[in-house]
């Protein structure tokens, strides 16, 4: 192979870049970002606050979906492409339930009881779908090379999308708006309404409960052990299959809850929306540090803020045409330069 | 009768194998003929085509001197003559008539793309979920250099006029030059994408390529006012059309009789009226042959063996002195090269390029071809690519019509094409991960059983 170097003359990155270059560029970018946000804040404060609140709400939803990616990746090192589509199917179920329960125009205690009921149903629904997918499509490939389940996951994603397409057709399904629109607080002349606040009100305790579950319970311990070393965990008497199923169940339930919030807050859902949102949520999970639970929510917030500010601000803003490119560019930059994410620990994958 | 290239002592063995295959193939052929006659009636073409396939299968050609060329040679001849006998062919049950020449062009182009992706995924084992980006680069290169698109934005520029009127404004470079330019340009893009990202392994690389695959169409869609400069690079969501038809131009056409431009081409040859579509088909076929040739030669080259070494065990390959980055970057460049040619030719065949043609779905579609056929095996990829492209173009519509007619339903089958492709991905991965036609190398590995079990796509028996 010694001759190969001469046979294949090819430009490569000449050596390694100096160590300080990457952090320096990173800091420079952050400074530019702060300047950009600052100028926009001074120029159009009300826009800024409005977009900030939108970003906060969307970020919570992205975070919930991202938690599902993070949980599954943490335990199986598998990017579950179908996760976003499980979320989409949940949203469609919510749309069906809202109209068949006749919730439009309801209010008060009855509405809240029904929303809680729907939450329970949709969480169970998505959890069962996600667990079934694992059972049918991923379990057989547990010992396969890593690309095999990844390809299967893409296939599953397409299958679920088409189930949604058969179910609700190609047009967006609208969901009756049932959340109250009352004022929670006003900041800089911008009102934060209850329908947005509920999303936050839900996400924060879920995150804490989840961390508690993973850190403090026996089941959480089993999950962490399985994530670290499946064989060793099995030798310690942990039922690895059940633990992995439980993880998928949990991830599905989170997707279901996100689907309820999304459907009620955005008030429409389409068959390919899950895939799009899933990619964004996956980016969020990577930005925060995949496998790291608070990181997933942080990543969700970061991504949603970028999206919201880029869509709405006026000064030196690329605009909504470029939002997706910016998010994916961020994904690439993070994966290339800091694969462990903002809060994650360095893994061998980073190379 | 003496069989050329076969030692006398293997003659009995040869005869036994011949009889065995004749028996098996004969039963299949008779069953097929009966099936077709029941469902769509008798034609001579049914007997003739089945006999040809039986002859190709039954005789163990590989055992003979120069025998390994027989099947490819016959396949090439059959492919070239396809426009001549297509109308005589019978109707296949459920699938309906054989693909039209128009569909055959699309199939050929998709097969080229699949072979290009096969270099990246099949040989080097790098999962590329953004292959459509290369296809898009090729298509837009053709659109830039062979269309009136730049007539205004570059200020009355006038370069070349192959196949269009001599006064036409804009770049009108000959398609043959454009194909080369597109291929080189796309490889450069492949290298640029590869250099920072190929350090990543496995699924991270897949995600990064997916990211590029999503960014590229967005640039195409927003490129009519590139970064606010007002420069119209891609004409936005309307896409660029028309693109010049391929052709040889008036001068060469005058000397050789080759078509001046494909769209207005009309001639009679071997008793058949030929239009532009046949020439498109033969050109696509020539490009495909070139692609297959390069792909096979690359696979057997030093570089190709390095790719396969990386696919099978990256760490071991690195330890043996294979330069990982450089070898992988070459895989990207080679894969992108053919994607670029295919994209440019497809754009000029369709006479237009639109940003909505370059969604993630197309990447998965091409990936599905590679996986269905058998990762790493050119022949498998040709079969898989041809079949899926046919399904996409005509097959699903025919099958849907057949189903609706039989059961009185009203299902729009082509609407669910990606669900069907997704199901194919899952089923192949679960039950036959090496694909329908696994590569000879892998088959040999299995038969000898001497090679390490753990390869990238080996699903059975690989340790953690």
Structure description:
The complex is a heterodimer of chains A (351) and B (464). Chain A contains 13 helices and four strands. Chain A has helices at 4-7, 21-43, 45-76, 83-100, 108-138, 147-168, 194-216, 218-228, 230-235, 240-266, 273-288, 293-312, 323-337; strands at 173-174, 183-187, 190-193, 268-269. In chain A, a hairpin with a 2-residue loop joins strand 2 (183-187) and strand 3 (190-193). In chain A, helix 3 packs parallel to helix 7, helix 4 crosses helix 11 and helix 7 (194-216) crosses helix 8 (218-228). In chain B, the strands form two sheets. In chain B, strands 1-3-2 form a three-stranded mixed beta sheet. In chain B, a hairpin with a 2-residue loop joins strand 4 and strand 5. Chain B starts with 10 loop residues before the first helix and ends in a 16-residue tail after the last helix. Classes of the chains: A mainly alpha (351), B mainly alpha (464). Chains A and B meet through helix 1, helix 6, helix 11 and helix 13 of A and helix 7, helix 8, helix 11, helix 13 and helix 14 of B.
